[in-house]
Design brief:
The protein is mainly α and 175 residues long. The chain is 70% helix and 0% strand. The protein has helices at residues 4-39, 47-69, 77-80, 85-119, 136-159. Helix 1 packs antiparallel against helix 2 (47-69), helix 2 packs parallel to helix 5 (136-159) and helix 4 (85-119) runs antiparallel to helix 5 (136-159). The longest helix has 36 residues, at 4-39. The two termini are 19 Å apart.
Length: 175
């Protein structure tokens, strides 16, 4: 039986990949199902489109935090790498500080949006799903992105892994 530490390490390393992957598969299957129902059987369904949209939303926002962990977001590293080592690292840290402030701001704003959905609930037109659940992806995505940014700098302070480095599976260190 795996230890709690092993389970946590797996979740920390693979949870975003699994969630985003499942969402993409669900979205693709439902869009394919909708195309077959519409053009082969002339019996379109509306519920499949709605679920596919929710799956896409969750996939996008969870993948954003995954990209932070992997240092795969679009950044101007080619420009930063033109400068000498310490200056380039300083520019990367400065850009990450701005990004962190923006991520905290977006986390807070998405949290306020989510709270408003509890106070003034509204439901989706087809399935009648309370919109506070699908749009929770905003809070989850931005909060995870913020946590992953902090994690990058924790790994730099603790293990010396530069924030400009692109991690590989073998380079990630787990306590």
């Amino acid at each position: 039986m795996p230890s709690l530490r092993t389970v946590f390490a797996f979740l920390e390393r693979r949870s975003e990949e699994v969630i985003a992957g499942v969402c993409v598969v669900v979205m693709a299957v439902l869009v394919f199902f909708q195309v077959v129902m519409r053009y082969v059987f002339s019996a379109p369904t509306s519920w499949s489109d709605e679920i596919a949209v929710y799956a896409m939303l969750w996939s996008v926002y969870i993948s954003a935090s995954w990209a932070v962990r992997e240092r795969a977001h679009i950044r101007v590293m080619n420009l930063i790498n033109l400068f000498p080592g310490r200056f380039a690292t300083g520019l990367a840290v400065l850009s990450d500080l701005v990004w962190f402030a923006f991520a905290v701001y977006l986390t807070w704003q998405s949290f306020l949006l989510h709270l408003s959905m509890w106070e003034l609930p509204f439901e989706s037109p087809v399935l009648g799903v309370a919109q506070k659940w699908p749009y929770l992806c905003l809070v989850a995505g931005f909060a995870l992105m913020t946590v992953r940014l902090v994690q990058v700098y924790y790994q730099w302070a603790r293990y010396g892994i530069s924030p400009t480095a692109v991690p590989e599976d073998a380079a990630i260190i787990h306590d």
